[in-house]
Amino acid sequence: VIHVVRFHRVYWKYRQHAKVYKAVLMDVAHLSQTLYLTATARGLGAWFTAAINDGDLGLRLGLDPLTEGVLALNGLGLVDHSQTQRHFRPQGNR
């Protein structure tokens, strides 16, 4: 799931709110938590990250960077129960 914001819609909805970005981030947080809960209920694993290259993703999605932007990613899928460690090791196991 790719979380995308349309800035003009958010600014219209919260036009008198000084910190609209906090509302947007809370919306993403609530949506990702719902995905985690749904995945757990279905026996699936889930993940979330905001550590993304939003410029490249926006380009691939055809977003106008002045009006739209990618905020975060969620994913879910089957859990590999044969794994005993859940540590991220991009350089391999050492």
Task: Note down, in words, how this protein is organized.
The protein is α+β, with helices and mostly antiparallel strands. The chain has 3 helices and 3 strands; from the N terminus they run E-H-H-E-H-E. It has helices at about 5-15, 20-40, 55-60, and strands spanning about 1-5, 45-50, 70-75. A 3-stranded antiparallel sheet has the order 1-3-2, sandwiched between helices. The longest helix has 22 residues, at about 20-40. It is globular and about 50 Å long.
How many strands, what sense, and barrel or not for the largest sheet? Answer: 3 strands, antiparallel
Order of helices and strands: EHHEHE
Structural class: alpha+beta
* Distance between the amino and carboxyl termini: 32 Å
Total number of helices? 3
- Total beta-strand segments: 3
Helix coverage percent: 25-40%
Question: What would you report as the Rg, rounded to the nearest angstrom?
Answer: 17 Å
Strand order of the largest sheet: 1-3-2
Strand content: 15-25%
What spatial form do the alpha-carbon principal axes imply? Answer: globular
Write a brief structural summary.
The chain is built from 3 helices and 3 strands; from the N terminus they run βααβαβ. It is α+β, with helices and mostly antiparallel strands and 94 residues long.
Topology at a glance:
Elements: E1 2-6, H1 7-13, H2 20-41, E2 45-49, H3 54-61, E3 68-77
Antiparallel strand pairs: 1-3, 2-3
Question: Any key phrases for this structure?
Answer:
globular; 39% helix; three-stranded antiparallel sheet; single chain; 94 residues; 3 helices; alpha+beta
